[in-house]
Structures are given as structure tokens and as C-alpha cells.
Amino acid sequence: MDDLTMDLTRLCRRNRDGSYGTQANRLRGLTAMANELRELGYRMPAAKSLKSKHVDALVEKWLDNEHTDATIRNRLTWLRWWAEKVDKSNVIHRDNARYGVNDRTNATRNRAKQFSQEKFNKLTCPYIKGAILLQAHFGLRREEAMKFRPQYAIGRDLISLKASWTKGGRPRVIPITTLQQRQVLQHLQKLVPGDGSLIPPQLTYVEQLKQYEYQTLKAGMRNTHGFRHTYAQQRYKVLTGQPCPINGGKLWQDMTPEEKTADRTARQTIALELGHGRISITDTYLGSAAR
Questions:
Q1: Hey, what long-range contacts does 76-79 have (CB within 8 A, 24 or more apart)?
Q2: Mean pLDDT within 117-123
Q3: d(CA 171, CA 185)
Q4: Could you tell me if 80 and 89 are in contact, meaning their C-beta atoms sit under 8 angstroms apart?
Q5: How far apart are CA 224 and CA 216, in angstroms?
Q6: Percent of the chain with pLDDT over 70
Q7: What is the mean pLDDT of residues 223-249?
């Protein structure tokens, strides 16, 4: 047990708010957060070490792992409890929407994030800029983009992602369908020498991840996972010829039989391109549809 986990355990034992079940769930949740922060490269000696950068890193990780809004809301509740008990309430924003998380009363909020050239230009590391371009133009998760190896991945009409780069260890391919995508890939081939990835040779993944978090937050590029939502919505429009429900398109009950068929086919395609085994996950990106 590391120092942070031990200190959080003591904090929970000193502050027995709520029922036994609530206390047990809180302790499990905070212990898991301590483990996640350690995996992200943060060595925190005590609970009082909590800063806004730790909150941002955790939320970005949860979004990248595609946890539901309900799950993230619960975790933010535990984080706020932690912050309050160590007199650090100001490190966590009161509004969940600031972190790209829907409130209960706004369950259909669109998480898509538009690419800002102005913010992008503020990034100084070319490898981080390359990863952002992959997220925006191919819908890759942050880790997938950082571990992307151009020499291996880039084919004539598609990119191939290794199992070791992806969530759940599922390899997949994504078609190259636009001129912008080809330009991004050409840029990456020039940027990365040999069999390298978008992690500089002298850095580990965790070290580059911390640089990524620092630079994107400094540039105002919070919740880059939103680029993945934008990619899914753009693909839906290309595949169906109309915007998706969450972006102002027709709801399922208003679609013709032909449109319902197109909707389902598009969702199956998008689920595969995003690396999901279940078509139902596309509700998060596109808005709900009947099965």
C-alpha cells in the first residue's frame, strides 16, 4: 500500500459520513483513484497533495476509458468529499459540465468537441500535436494516438491499430476516407523516424502522458476525448446522409424504415471503427436509437 492509499484510508476512518455502505463504496473508490494516479505517474505523499491537475488527469482518464456519466458523477462526488476533508475544495469545479460530464437533468448533452486551430497552435511538442490530429481525424483514444507507429499502422486505404495500443487489447482497422486524413498521415510519416511512435524516444509513455496533460490544459484543450465524439458524428452524417439524433437529426420514431436501416448499419460501422464490441455504446456518441 502506497503513502496516498494509506492516508486516504486514514481519512475515511476519521470521517465516517453516511451509511456503512456509503463509507465502504467511498473507500473503494478513493483507493482506486490512488492506484490510477500512481499509474498516471503521480507520486502523491498525502491526501493533502491533491491539486487541480490530479482532478483533470483522473477525469480525462475516465472519459478516455468511456465510463458512463453516472459513474463519473459518482467519482467526482468522492473526489469532492476528499477535497473538502483536506481543505482543498477549490481544486474541483462545482459544475460537472466543466469536465464534459452530463448532469442527471441533461442526459442528452452532446460531448462532441470542435477542433480549434488557435488552441492547437499553442502546443509546443510536435508529438503531442500529432496525437491530437489522430484523435480529431480518426477518433482514436488518447493512448492509442500516443502509441501510434506510422511505419506499422499506415496502409494504402486504412490504418491498423495493434492490440497492444488499444483498450481491451482489440486490434482494429479504420478506413482513410478524406484528404485531410491522408495529409495528417503524411505529416506523421515525416515526423516519426523509423519504427518509432508518437512518444519521443527519450521518454516513457507515462512521462509523455504528463507532458500531454500539461500542454493540452495550458492550451485550453480540456477533454480531448470530445474529438472522438465529433469523429463519430461526422462519420454518421457521411454514412447516412443526415446528422445524428444528438446533433439535431431525426429521432428513431421519426425515421422512415429506410432511414432506420441506414441508422443501424452506420452505428455498426462506427462501433467497429471506435473499437467497441457493442452497438449500444454508440448512443453515447450519436444519441439513442431503438434496437
A1: 76/101, 78/26, 78/29, 78/30, 78/33, 79/33, 79/55
A2: 97
A3: 19
A4: yes
A5: 8
A6: 98
A7: 95
